Amino acid sequence: MKVTRFFTTKDGGSAFDEVDIPVTISSTDGWGNHLRFSEAFASPSVRIFEVPKGAFQDWHNAPTRQLCIMLKGVWEIGTTDGDERRWGPGEVFMPDTVTGRGHTSRVVEGPVRMVFVPVPADVDITSWFNN
Question: 14, 7 in Cβ contact below 8 A?
Answer without folding.
Answer: yes
